[in-house]
Amino acid sequence: MVKNLYNNVNDDTPVLVGCSQYLGEKGSGGPNFLDILKSASIKALEDCNSEISVTEHLDAISVIRFVADTPNRSTATAASWGYPNMPRSLGNSLGITVPHEIYTTTGGNSPQLVLNEICNRIKNGQLECALLAGGEALDTLISRMKMGLDTDWSDDPGGKPESIGSDRDLGSEFEQRHGVFDPSAVYPLFANSIRGNEGKSSKEHMDDIGRLFSRFSEVASNNKYAWFKTHRSLDEIVEVAPENRMIGFPYTKYMNSIMRVNQSAALVVTSAKKARELGIPESKWIFMHAGACLNDIWNITDRRNLHSSPAIKKCSEAVFEVSNLSQVDISFFDLYSCFPSAVQIARKEIGIPEKDSRDLTVTGGLPYYGGPGSAYVVNSVASMMTKLRNNPGKFGMVTANGWFLTKHGTGIFSSTPFLGEWNQIIDSSSLQKGIDNEEHPEFLEEANGKGFIETYTVLNSREGPSKAIIIGRLEDGKRFIANTKKDENLLNRMMQNEMLNTYGTVNFEGSRNIFQPD
Q1: Would you call 95 exposed, middle or buried from its count of C-beta atoms within 10 A (0-12, 13-18, 19+)?
Q2: 67 contacts 75 by C-beta, under 8 angstroms
């Protein structure tokens, strides 16, 4: 019966037929950027278990952009990026040349974005067989830099790849001036907004996070590809200790994504016709039953609030509608988990009950499994493929997230054959317009007067608290962003006492707003 179903899959239906995850050696002897992609790609091509070489039939190679190749990132200034055409470099390392070379822009949404594009091009007859690879070798890079060792891994094969995705910067210059730059400084703003919206105390909120991420770490501890194979308890995750210092209040180190990893993954996608021609067993076939990508309002200071995501909500509603499924039909989830707030917001917008028994990760999450830059979702899709192959007929949902809960992607996958004409990628234009036109508070750059704290965080260095970031409202309802004066007593008080809705005075001083609580 299942065989007959596969025989009825249309020739132009895209199918994921190969996957891999790769964990490289740690330290200065680890792989470089090209080697880590090559290792994952070879494994994914072998995973197809085809009768005829898949490698020789590839007509597209796509690669997720590396952190060190991202404009205006600290790592990019510390190292000389020497791969002007990584898809071609990867192809050369595999001994092949392909007509289509694709390189994404930066963002954790990029894997879903490019996977959607590949599947659409297969459906439209523009591609037949594509390789998608991504990863990071930041642990090797940083280890070698600290030891003063050579990091010149350049390879210039010529040509210029096609670029997919938005290269818009991660926030406004005014936001960045106040410290909105690194994700570790921004996601805690979402955390305190979530807490305020739920009316919970700091301890109640931290206990929620501890339970959530303790389970994530348990999943990672049993994953052979995880960077950290340690099951951490609730207390270990939430309690500040020398090995678990405060990063951005209320988030400790163990709640932060870890990008310094040597990890990669790769996927092989073909048309059903090509899969049959290559003799790829149907036991390897995984279908994407729906895919969507949307953006939230770009600047966090322009959003309706900092505890919701209209884009995640509309993405999930759209993929459920087009796949004729609901959240109750999903057996396995992997919610993008760079920080707890990303998971908490996604769970709520998708409609997963808070005490649902289903796990929210198949990898273990970015703080424990590892977060190889923008490429993590290649790993999570590969992990989901393995899970679904071992559980025929079940459905899995993967979410993707770039910047500050800004760029989103969602995919639904299953071994269940997709029958009929495949048109499963959501046309996002009207949905995106609806998000962009949502009402939201007016944002004022130069703020002066009385106001209150809407949400906030306190950033910490190894030496202690260093800066507060405040999102607030003036008495007329206009929103502002501010810092405080560098007063260690005040910063400590902001971490020890409830500061949400606290009134004070904000003044524009020089180039920034400064908030002084009453």
Answers
A1: exposed
A2: yes
Q: Are residues 279 and 427 in the same domain?
A: yes
pLDDT in tens, 445-477: 999 999 999 999 999 999 999 999 999 999 999
The residues, any chain, with a CB within 8 Å of residue 228's CB and separated by 6 or more, are 217, 220, 258, 367, 368, 369, 370
Task: State if pTM tops 0.85.
Answer: yes
Q: Is residue 188 part of a domain?
A: no
Range of the domain at 19: 2-171+258-436
In a domain, 276, yes or no: yes
List, for residues 191-217, the tens digit of each pLDDT value: 999 999 999 999 999 999 999 999 999
CATH number at residue 163: 3.40.47.10
**CB neighbour class for 439 (10 Å; exposed up to 12, middle 13-18, buried from 19):** exposed
Taking the C-alpha atoms of residue 251 and residue 249, their distance in angstroms, rounded to an integer, is 5
Phi, psi (5° rounding) for residue 211? -65, -45
CA distance 310 to 253: 28
Flag whether 194 is in a domain: no
Phi-psi region of 79 (alpha: psi -120 to 50; beta: other; left: phi over 0): beta
